[in-house]
Amino acid sequence: VTDAAVKNIVKENLFTVTCEDGRVFSSDLLIIACGGACASYTGTTGDGYKWLSRLGHKVFAPKPSIVQLLTDNSVTKALSGLRLDCELTLTADGNVVAEQYGEVLFTDYGLSGPAVLQVSGEVSRRMRKDRLTVPVKVSLRLFDEKTLLSIEEELMERRRTFASRPSEQFLLSILPQKIGAMLLKSALERPMSLPVSTITDGDIKKILSTMRSWNFQVLGTRSLEQAQTTIGGADCAEFSEETLESKLVSGLFACGEVLDVDGDCGGYNLTWAFASGILAGRSAAMLLSDKAGGF
User: CA–CA distance from 205 to each of 94, 153, 208 (Å)?
Assistant: First the structure.
C-alpha cells in the first residue's frame, strides 16, 4: 500500500489504521517507522509522535539536531561564506558541554559547518519554547599555543616593519584578509584605518587572546526544517531493548527517529534507522510466526 496518508490509529483487538482517503486497514501487529519531525521535504511529518502518544506512550517534544546555530551576527554576517578549521568549545552557563575540532562556516545568521553541526544538539537540549534556558557561547580557538608564540613575535616585527600601513592589514597571511580584519575589530574595537604603529603591546595581547578564544553568543538554533535529525520522540524505556515492541501495547513496534534516539554526524543516525528497522521487522515477524504456530 502506498500513497496512503494515515489519519488515525486505534487498538482494540486489532490495530485499525484509518487513511485520509477513507480506506481502513486492520492488523494484529503494527510497526511505526515514519521518521522524525525534521526536513519535511524528505517526507517526514512528525505524525508518528501523535499516534504513539494516542496509543499511550510518553513522547518527548521534538527539537532540531545536526543543525546550524543562530548567533549575534555582527561579525558572522560580514564573513558569510568564509570557512576556518579551528577548535570549537561550547559552554552553557559557564560550563564546557562540548568540544570539537573541524571546519566552521560563517553565515548571515550565525555559524555552520561540520564542527558546529556536531555540537548543535547540546544547544537544542538547553532550549524551551525556542528560547535558551541558560547563556550559551561558542568559542573558536584558531591556533595552538606554540603557533601563538610565533605569531606574537611576527606581530612585534610587523609593527616595526609596516608601521605606516592601516591596521586592517596587520594580520595578512596569518589569516584570510576579511577574517583577520574582523578579528582585529573584535579584539581592539578601534578604527582599522589607524596605522599599525598605533598598535600597542597590550593590543597585541588582546589580538592573541581573541585568536585563543573568539567568542560568539548563541541565540538558538535554526528550525527543524533545516535540521538533519530530531532530538526527542517516544520514550525508549517503554519499549523492549531486545525487540522494540511496546511494553504498553501488545503487538506495537517502533523504530528509527520516532524513538528518542539521536546520534552525531557521520552516519550514526542512518545506522540506527537501518538497525532498529531490521530488529523491529524481524521481531514482529517472529511474534506473528509464534501466533500462527510457525510458518
Answer: 23, 11, 5
| DSSP structural state of residue 125 | T
CA angle 236, 116, 86 (to 5 degrees): 140
Tens of pLDDT, residue by residue over 20-69, are 999 999 999 999 999 999 988 888 889 999 999 999 999 999 999 999 99
Give the integer Cα–Cα distance in Å for 286 and 295: 9
Task: Give 159-186 as a DSSP string.
Answer: HHHTTTSBGGGTTBTTB-HHHHHHHHHH
Helix axes 145-161, 201-212, angle to 10 degrees: 150
Question: 80 φ, ψ to 5°?
Answer: -50, 130
Query: How much is the pLDDT for 294?
Result: 59
pTM (predicted TM-score): 0.89
- Per-residue pLDDT at 97: 97
The whole-angstrom separation of Cα 39 and Cα 64 is 10
H or E segment to which residue 124 belongs? helix 114-124
Distance CA 278, CA 43 (A): 21
DSSP 224-293: GGG-SEEEEEE-GGGB-TTT-BBSSSTTEEE-GGGBS----TTTHHHHHHHHHHHHHHHHHHHHHHHHTT
Q: Which residues contact 60 (CB under 8 A, 6 or more apart)?
A: 231, 232, 233, 234, 235, 260
Per-residue confidence (pLDDT) for residue 2, from 0 to 100: 80
Number of Cβ within 10 Å of residue 226's Cβ equals 15
Residue 295 clears pLDDT 60, i.e. is over it: no
